[in-house]
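Let's study my pick:
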Amino acid sequence: MEKPQQFIQDSETIAFNKEHRRIINYNIDKYTSATILGKQQFSNIDLAKQRAATTKNKVIENLDKYLIEFESNFIRKGGKVIWAQNAEEAIAEIKKIVSTTSRNYIVKSKSMVTEEIELNKELIADSIDVIETDLGEYIQQLSGEAPYHIVTPAMHRSKENIAELFNAKKHTSSDASPSELTEFVRNELREKFITSEIGITGANYLIADTGSVVITENEGNAISGMSFPKIHISICGIEKLIPSINDFDVFVTLLASFGTGQQITSYNSIVNGPKQSDEEDGPNEMYVILLDNNRTNLLALEEQRRALACIKCGACLNVCPVYKNVGGHTYGTVYSGPIGAIMTPHLKPEENYYHLSSASTMCGKCTVSCPVGIDIHKLLLYNRRDFVAKGHSTKTENLYRFFWKTAMLKRSKMDKGGAKVKNFMMRQFFRKQWGERREMPEVVSKSFNQLWREQRGIK
């Protein structure tokens, strides 16, 4: 089945799943309440958002400069930088690094980029075990499902559902509490952290002027995964740059406030490379893999390139009425919700994700909620425009739009036919597009223009 048809079919199913609706609304409401409190730490939140937006815009417009600056400073401290044009190159480089070890297993902290390139699948196929260490990702790996949400991978699950999963997979008590399950996972992972030779993480930011990798988290698994193993691999998209350590404060607070409602995340690590000669802790080797994977396609688009400013806080997902009804898995891609609908068609141009840009009510909540000032709903419209121009619309849709545009551009044509004819035409040609569960709007007998003219005696 083609992806647009699959999306419509899956949306139809999940939107009427009352249990899914109950769980997702409950969990998102918790986030909404928390973020309201988290944002109160800012004396001028609009100024903070403006500063972040300006900084990221500067990075996007000068990305080559900041990437080279980061590489130079990171290498100077003993780190190694690998440039990967696509998923295949990134995976090949990681396998090459793994081949230098005993290949026992890899501990991995939450990373959307590794989900993007399907790293776990590729490593497991090569008989390399990968263990997700963040609780949400651990749950999803246990279930065999992809992450549901950018920030909260298991947001669609209730505590009862998670207890049932652990009972089936790990033989824990079927009525185990969240704290008991967390303790179980903690005990299981401790030995893995200590004995694994490789830890893989993502990166929330790369700081150009210090050559640093920033990782923010709440569980401490990333810091364990890069402290105990002798090799640390950090993989991230080329857009993750911020210019200076002096810019870090506004980004770390915005990410926490808009993402989880915290004033700051529990663990914030600024890593400058492998351990130095005077240091006891840390990896012997550290690699940063800078992944393009079609990001330069998006960078080439003057209007849509602003999407690369995204800091992956998940705020736009939490307010989107479409996401809250159809859920994360329905999108069929790693980056779901409004920001995913913008980026995915360009990151995977060969897979026909153009339909996602139409999965929006255009209410604008995503734009309002964005901490770095991305005009998300405008970018969705730019996508729609470009996809129609590239032929990603049916002949029937093009015909409807032609007649609609022709009529709307001239008053004399708009007034032709009367209300009865217009209502008949609407029912005949737009009933399916309008949807089975919405009543077609009725055209009134007199238009506003006619009423206005009559009131003023204008013929």
